[in-house]
Amino acid sequence: MLCAMPLDENPLLQTAALESLAAQHPGRSCTCGMGQCRSWESVPDERWPAQQVRRIGTLRPVDASVSEPTYEEFHPHQTRYDSPEAPIAPAFFPYNRCDVFSCAQCERVLLKYTEYGGYYVDHRVRALQAGLVSDAQPDSA
Length: 141
Ligand SMILES: [Zn+2]
Description:
Layout: H1 15-24, E1 41-42, E2 53-58, E3 99-103, E4 109-116, E5 121-127
């Protein structure tokens, strides 16, 4: 269990914090209806178990209004956006738009962001996995 924290607190998590969260929360089968989420999956609000997940932080830069986070993705080993083994690199899309949640039921740490299309919003969720976190930075940063 994570220690209690005021609900409105929303700290910016750095790579090291993510890595230790991943180490503290080894993957366990989820029974909360979201499935494995080893790669990015669409999770509509109806399937998002809001009662048992708690926001524990964010990966979005605080000054996102000043400079929009990059849309560049990080795939040094020929992975793709939806590859289960794609790196989790907070400096890159879509991790730089994610909030971080923990599930009270399976104790997994979940990353979530919202994809905005012309006529829809799509909530996407991926489970945090130890060993995939990367602190790589975009070249142009
Ligand atoms: Zn769960």
